[in-house]
Design goal:
The protein is an alpha/beta fold and 309 residues long. The strands form two sheets. Strands 2-3-4-1-5 form a five-stranded parallel sheet, with helices on both faces. It starts with a helix and ends with a strand.
Length: 309
């Protein structure tokens, strides 16, 4: 699948002098691993791919000395691949499961900036113990991958020409011909049913049936709920799940803002505020703040008490 993030990755690759290690953040199942491996295969001579959650042997290399030269030697020995500056892409996947690996990016930036190193992780906002491990602030570049938007969905459906017509109509402020407009509306309804998760779109493209999509959607939802139990205490995970499960009801009602009483009778920001912040930091929800006036900077006019998820 073609993704818009590929242009950002290419810009990062071609930087000279000021290129930092890259972190691709995003919720689970949005396609981080796929897009990085595809990028590596297309733009580099070889790729060193390490999943730090499953490859505990290599994860152990980061336990003690995280000097880049030592780590690079061990990675070469473990994978049997030469790591050549400018020709090799090193991918550290699931980096949230190895916090010392995240810290090591600072030293890769300072001591070996000639190497292309990219890390991928989900739940970075909640999985990292910041009291024990330092996040390499200022030493890494971070970009976020979201589910496919409607334009990317059309690309996946092979409707590139229709995309161009929609964009042209937008730029010239002219309506699409009615036939094209109706076709685009039908595709948009498909998008609303399937969503933007790559696995769901693949399931639909392979079978051509909507019946296979809910199975994949429910599996993704189950994984999200499992993460709530894994990366939060038992008490917190109950409140996080309650907030998360209330979102469809919140959106179905004609509410002007998120209502805590929908989560639980007598609910309040004091009770559920941290749970909502957890969901936001985990990338599972998007928090949309209400503004009082449409002037820049928008943050100045935000009503902090009124938002939707």
């Amino acid at each position: 699948m073609k993704r818009k993030i590929e242009e950002l990755l290419l810009t990062w690759k071609n930087k000279t002098g000021s290129r930092l290690p890259l972190i691709v953040n995003g919720a689970r199942q949005v396609g981080k691993t796929y897009i990085l491996r595809k990028f590596g295969a297309e733009q580099f001579k070889n790729v060193i791919y390490i999943n730090l959650e499953t490859n505990l042997t290599i994860a152990s290399y980061f336990t003690d000395n995280i000097a880049p030269e030592r780590l690079l030697r061990y990675l070469e020995a473990s994978t049997g691949e030469r790591i050549i500056p400018g020709e090799t892409l090193i991918i550290l996947d699931e980096i949230q499961s190895c916090e010392r690996a995240l810290t090591s990016l600072k030293y890769f930036c300072e001591e070996t900036p000639e190497f292309h190193i990219v890390a991928a992780g989900s739940l970075l906002g909640v999985a990292i113990n910041r009291q024990r491990y330092s996040f390499p602030v200022g030493k890494v570049e971070t970009i976020t991958l979201y589910p496919l938007d409607f334009e990317e969905f059309l690309w996946a459906r092979g409707r590139n020409v229709l995309c161009e017509e929609i964009r042209s109509a937008y730029e010239t402020m002219e309506p699409l011909p009615n036939a094209l407009h109706q076709e685009a509306i039908e595709l948009y309804r498909e998008y609303l049913l399937i969503g933007g998760m790559p696995a769901c779109i693949n399931a639909f493209l392979e079978s051509g049936s909507f019946l296979d999509v809910p199975l994949v959607q429910n599996e993704i939802l189950d994984n999200y709920i499992a993460d709530m139990a894994k990366y939060a205490s038992n008490t917190d995970s109950v409140k996080i799940r309650a907030c998360y499960n209330s979102i469809p009801a919140q959106l179905a009602k004609d509410n002007k803002k998120f209502q805590y009483k929908v989560v639980q009778k007598g609910g309040s920001a004091t009770l559920f505020g941290m749970s909502i912040e957890w969901l936001n930091l985990a990338g599972v929800v998007l928090k949309c703040q209400r503004i009082n006036q449409a002037y820049e900077p928008i943050a100045v006019y935000a009503d902090l008490s009124a938002f939707k998820l």
